[in-house]
Amino acid sequence: MYVILYRIVNGVTKAMSVLILGIETSCDETSAAVVAEGTEIKSNIISSQVEVHRKFGGVVPEVASRKHLELINAVIREALDQAGLSFKDIDAVAVTYGPGLVGALLVGVASAKAIAFGLDIPLIGVNHIEGHVFANFLVEANPVLPATCLVVSGGHTELVLVHGPGHYELLGATRDDAAGEAFDKVARAMGLGYPGGPLIDQLATGGNDNAVPLPRAYLEEGSLDFSFSGLKTAVINYLHRVTGQGGQVNQADLAASFRRAVVDILVDKTISAARRYATGTVMLAGGVAANKLLRNELSRRAGAEGLRVVIPPPVLCTDNAAMIACAAYHKYLRGDFAPMTLNAVPSLQLGVEQY
Length: 355
Ligand code: KG4
Ligand code: ZN
Hints:
Layout: E1 6-9, E2 12-15, E3 19-24, E4 29-36, E5 40-48, H1 50-54, H2 61-83, E6 92-98, H3 102-119, E7 123-127, H4 128-139, E8 147-152, E9 157-164, E10 167-173, H5 179-189, H6 196-204, H7 229-244, H8 251-276, E11 281-285, H9 292-304, E12 308-310, H10 314-317, H11 321-334
Helix pairs in contact: 2-3, 4-11, 5-6, 5-7, 6-8, 8-9
The structure holds 5'-O-[(R)-(carboxyoxy)(hydroxy)phosphoryl]adenosine and zinc ion.
């Protein structure tokens, strides 16, 4: 039995200064955060394993799980210390339980269950994609809804209609590569290293985005789905053609042309969705949302259409536990707690709880 204290704000009953410890271990970031009232980030510790995975050119699932296991306790400790709190101050513990790498997810889920059981506080299971969406609620606590949210990460490219906390409609998704995956694969083909998104973004700044003609797949008329594998293949073919003819590839021009093609598709489809579903607000989420051109173009185009735009700072776009704690806050208010049998669900769908 949990005791929840309430207070009345503007006639609305609210839980009292709720402190949620969030845990995120779905991929290669070990993160823990404390968020008060779903909005105030008391701490957000992110330990990236990128250096470990770089030499393999991508995330190695088994290595990621072992690293999470090594880091998780220290990261949680640091999140509490930096917030100036101890375990007894925490009202609930929230954890990403999917989608993601099963071994990586399990480390977070097992830690959160141990904390919830030991402290006798609620356990809250959060969908990773829902977490990304909620990074926007850390920037604007009460955005005008419904909103069209573009979620673009290493594993996902989705257009989500956000009616409110817990109420989502999937409008479109990638049929092959995720946007971040395309960035990473193209960077690898160009010999740039891992992760490719930030490297291409940086390199593109000095390039001409009209230099290399690349295809943009819009799919059937009106489709809000995405496809990036043709674009990726076009870049690889271009690299082979130029080097095969003994020529020199202008890396900056190629990076800029590729980034422009991805951003054109993402922004066009997001604006189309916002128009079709008459959402006055557009949101951006996921690691690729750290992309400079995407941020600028979405702001510019949405602004020109008279839409409100919410874009979280880059640190809240890539994987972090503050977004998980924020999403969990709304579940806490609804009393949507997970049982102690909560398990990792690697292919968890948005809006479909599996506990
Ligand atoms: O959300 P995230 O941190 O992890 C997943 O849930 O996948 O996203 C990681 C992805 C990687 O593919 C990375 O290359 C991409 O986000 N990314 C970027 C940028 N920063 C990170 N892609 C394009 N431009 C960036 N600046
Ligand atoms: Zn993510």
